[in-house]
Prior knowledge:
Elements: H1 9-17, E1 22-26, H2 30-38, E2 43-46, H3 50-53, H4 65-78, E3 83-87, H5 97-111, E4 115-119, H6 125-133, E5 138-143, H7 149-152, H8 162-178, E6 182-186, H9 190-199, E7 204-208, E8 216-219, H10 221-224, H11 242-258, H12 273-287
Parallel strand pairs: 1-2, 1-8, 2-3, 3-4, 4-5, 5-6, 6-7, 7-8
Helix pairs in contact: 2-4, 4-5, 5-6, 6-8, 8-9
3-methyl-2-oxobutanoic acid is lined by residues 26, 45, 47-49, 60, 87, 146, 184, 186, 208, 220.
Amino acid sequence: MNERKKVTLPYLFKKVQNGEPITWLTCYDYPTAYFQDRAGLDMILVGDSLGMTMLGYDSTLPVTMDDMIRHCQAVRRGAPNVHLVGDMPYMSYQPSVETAIRNAGRFMAEAGCDSIKLEGGVEMADRIAGIVKAGIPAIGHLGLTPQSVSALGGFKVQGKGALQAKKIIDSAKALEEAGAFAILLEMVPDRVCKIITERSENCIIMSLGSGPDAHGQLLIYHDCFGLYPKFKPRMAKVFGEAGKVIQEGLIEYVKEVSEKTFPQPENWFGMTDEEYNALDELLEKDKR
Length: 288
Ligand code: KIV
């Protein structure tokens, strides 16, 4: 039985007040969600990164609302107590405030999410304001925003120059004023993250590769456990080589089946001699 209390927004703000870092990982499936909840994680992001980590696309752009809802539902079943964040996929909020509110509502009503996240700065402040006014807690996402990777010129650090850093700082304030309860800073220089964290009044600042001064940390689960075969970003730490363990296990399975050392008696089911003899008689009768 799961004894944890549900992670609420007041609980997250209390952690910030006490100077305790908030823990956050991505997750896309039921068994991993179960493990993450049992590990005591505060938050889970069902990221549209699932397009790459789970579905094998080269980017997050093909991911649909239906993909997101299906994975959020599975994660919610595995992790009933964490704060569950649904990531709004490409074109589910960009067209208009109304589109953004309707799709944010689907995460809450159909998947039991606790909040949503969307990418973009000051230009997306009206989407955040609309969603928050509809009663849905919202998280902003600044810095490297993968849905705009083409416009940003690739997966690289954002805000290294003073002008760009100032733009990110201004956007963070705009999102906070629009009502975002949290903002994720992805691949922003540590000193820019520190300034934003120090200036935030009522907004939780989270870091993904943006240094230690935020109120908490996020990593992509697949990067932490060697589960994404194409690359590992520099900022990710590998906390366990699950990918290697699985690969070695698979090679062993192929070997044992090929060499007929698997299965062994404990891996199959039998029947009593009495039933087997009765079956034999039935089959003999069929022949007559
Ligand atoms: O989709 C995702 O997992 C994300 C992270 C890159 C922050 O948005």
